[in-house]
Amino acid sequence: MNTYICPFVVPPGEVLEEKINEMGLSTEEFAGRIGISTEALVQLFKGRLSLSSGLAARLERVTDIPADYWNRAETNYRRKLENLKME
Length: 87
Known about the structure:
Layout: H1 12-23, H2 27-34, H3 38-45, H4 53-63, H5 67-86
Helix pairs in contact: 1-3, 2-3, 4-5
């Protein structure tokens, strides 16, 4: 059985970046609200910074998107990255 694996993956940070834009917040303001540096937030957008469960809880408080969503999105993203590396 052949299984298609998408040749690219989207980090949960891209979804977060869209949400921040919808909320009308600057990157700096949002980073302050969740207690990380602006640079760390930019790295999260790019998928270079892993989204921890603690950070997911903070994101939930600010975005109203459940922490469980962020945790699953991060797990799926990292799993897909590993699958692409194994090809």
